[in-house]
Design a protein that fits this description.
By secondary structure, this protein is mostly helical. The protein has helices at about 10, 15-45, 50-80, 85-105, 110, 115-130, 135-145, 150-160, 160-180, 180-185, 190-210, 215-225, 230-235, 240-270, 275-300, 305-325, 330-350, 355, 365-395, 405-415. α2 (about 15-45) packs antiparallel against α7 (about 135-145), α7 (about 135-145) crosses α19 (about 365-395) and α14 (about 240-270) runs parallel beside α19 (about 365-395). The chain is globular. It starts with 7 loop residues before the first helix and ends in a 6-residue tail after the last helix.
């Protein structure tokens, strides 16, 4: 009898799981803080300011981790390109998860005064520093082990960590808000999701410690010694690719943090929605993101990652024109359609990234290159999104909120079109 070949997904199940779990933890960790920032961080850690100032200060601590991410990208990229993908991924997950877990034990301003926001900022920096090395390594773990012609579908596996992490974080906050009185949630209930992150981190570590190094990295090490300073070689020889990669990432970050963090804060403080009701709407819209990622991965293997990214960027520009009006429509079904449409488009701009970014850099500087591009794009597209949207809403009205998406989509489109030839 002729043996049937094992399906590529099944043959590489452990590798794909290792890449998926890490990014699920990443987005869970980041989104539980984003949700806490939108709901309770301001009053608990910055109580002496006005309500508007508290919200902005809470979002500043949210943005701080984005600033730390490129620093972590350089540090973890250095070891990822010199020592290997696996050990670097384990270290990044431990730092990221440890920082998140520690936030659960922070004293508030009422207990520790100015020390409380200082410790919060320190842990946010640690969280972002660890995150800086997470996505790049997880993507390379999948893509560098992918069979020929399956790179985009394998590269979409870590991307699916985004809707899974969002689902876990959003679902847990929704459950807590439904079972706890508001006073109890504000006093201690918000700490539970940070404590629960330890379970996800332990699962991620268990899976990652059982995998080997990627074939592409082993081949590169056998062919030539690794660069002594990968970031130096990267900027010296591939600076254009870094700029193009950074631009190519902006659209997906802008959509995610406008459709999640900003939308939740704006809807519950300015539009009159209950926290439970809007969390439920976001939870349903989240499934569109998973569909978009899977569609983007399959489509990119049929066409090319660059082509699908180009379409995703163009659609981001279109979504931005109606995002603000849809969010402020007052109709729950229309709000759901607005968020789901945006997240579906995000999937097209996010799903192919894991396959597209590695093609811009040679193996010896690839971990550093994609990590820096991804995290710098996160600063420009993600950290600025809540600030830009808040400012646009205050100065021009809610209808102008989505203009940041239009701008981010234009930047991503330019970056993909002007990127150097793929390897």
């Amino acid at each position: 009898m002729t043996a049937h070949p094992t399906h590529p997904f099944r043959a590489n199940a452990r590798i794909l799981t290792a890449s998926l779990v890490g990014t699920a933890v990443e987005f869970y960790d980041f989104y539980i803080y984003a949700t806490a920032a939108a709901l309770v961080i301001g009053p608990l850690f910055f109580p002496t300011q006005s309500p508007a100032a508290r919200t902005l200060l809470a979002f500043m601590t949210f943005g701080l981790a984005f600033v730390a991410r490129p620093v972590g990208a350089i540090a973890f990229g250095h070891f990822g390109d010199r020592v290997g993908r696996k050990s670097t991924l384990v270290a990044s997950l431990m730092l990221m998860g440890g920082s998140t877990f520690a936030i659960a034990f922070l004293p508030t301003y009422a207990v520790a005064g100015a020390l409380a926001p200082a410790l919060l900022c320190l842990l946010r920096f640690g969280q972002g520093f660890g995150l800086g090395g997470e996505w790049g390594g997880a993507s390379l773990l999948a893509v560098e082990n992918a069979p020929k012609g399956w790179e985009a579908r394998f590269g979409a596996a870590p991307q699916l960590g985004a809707p899974l992490g969002f689902l876990a974080a959003n679902g847990l906050f929704l459950m807590l808000s439904l079972t706890l009185p508001p006073a109890a949630f504000a006093a201690w209930g918000w700490r539970i999701p940070f404590l629960a992150s330890a379970v996800l981190v332990l699962v991620g570590l268990w899976v990652r410690l059982k995998i080997g190094e990627t074939a592409a990295f082993r081949a590169a090490i056998e062919a030539a010694p690794p660069p002594r300073v990968p970031v130096g070689q990267l900027f010296r020889n591939h600076f254009g690719a870094v700029v193009a990669g950074t631009a190519g990432v902006m659209a997906c970050f802008a959509i995610f943090y406008l459709a999640t963090t900003f939308a939740l804060s704006f809807a519950t403080t300015r539009l009159g929605y209950s926290m439970q009701g809007f969390l439920a709407v976001q939870l349903m819209a989240n499934f569109a993101l998973a569909v978009g990622i899977v569609l983007g991965g399959y489509w990119a293997d049929r066409a090319s990652p660059a082509r699908v990214l180009t379409i995703g960027a163009a659609l981001t520009m279109v979504v931005g024109l109606g995002f603000g009006s849809g969010l402020a429509s007052g109709s729950v079904p229309l709000v759901l359609v607005t968020l789901a449409s945006a997240l579906l488009v995000m999937g097209l701009a996010y799903g192919p990234l894991g396959a597209w970014l590695p093609t811009l850099y040679p193996t010896g500087v690839r971990y550093t290159g994609i990590s820096i591009a991804f995290n710098c794009g996160g600063i420009l597209g993600g950290a600025l999104a809540p600030f830009a949207a808040t400012w646009l809403a205050q100065t021009g009205g809610v209808a102008y909120v989505g203009l940041f998406l239009t701008l981010a989509g234009a930047v991503t489109l330019t970056g993909v079109l002007l990127a150097p030839p793929q390897r």
